[in-house]
Design goal:
Layout: H1 2-25, H2 31-35, E1 37-48, E2 53-56, E3 59-63, E4 68-73, E5 78-86, E6 89-94, E7 97-106, E8 110-119, E9 122-131
Antiparallel strand pairs: 1-2, 1-3, 1-9, 3-4, 4-5, 5-6, 6-7, 7-8, 8-9
Length: 132
């Protein structure tokens, strides 16, 4: 009877531990983990509040796990810098510009960001849609 009880207890513990490790596979990824990788700009329209003009940007972002990013636009201009995520705010800083983006949606294959960009003394606002 002791052997049966011991064997039952060991089996129960193994099943219990197995269930815990399975749960770890389905844990949600952090925003930084979701952001890391290459993204194609699907929609990137900025508005100049002072003169009611809009312009569209195209290109690709690449975010690395070490906190660096690159952006290359359709005219082969390249911007490199650092990024940080704090809560639902993504901040990009480079020698060319800085951007503060509210993360509206961030999933494995799609991101929607509301951005404020500071460049050459001007402030622009817009929405960015990124896809993989």
């Amino acid at each position: 009877m002791k052997k049966f009880f011991s064997l039952s207890l060991i089996t129960l513990l193994l099943i219990s531990c197995s269930s815990d490790s399975e749960g770890n596979d389905t844990e949600q990824k952090s925003d930084k983990e979701l952001l890391v990788g290459n993204w194609v700009v699907e929609n990137y329209i900025f508005e100049f509040p002072e003169d009611n003009e809009n312009f569209e940007v195209c290109g690709d972002y690449s975010f690395l796990a070490n906190g660096t990013y690159t952006f290359e636009d359709c005219q082969d201009n390249r911007e490199e810098g650092l990024y940080n995520i704090l809560g639902d705010v993504l901040t990009l800083n480079s020698n060319v510009s800085s951007e503060v983006m509210e993360i509206i949606e961030l999933k494995e294959t799609r991101a929607e960001l509301k951005a404020t960009r500071f460049h050459s003394g001007s402030e622009m606002e817009g929405t960015i849609i990124l896809e993989r």
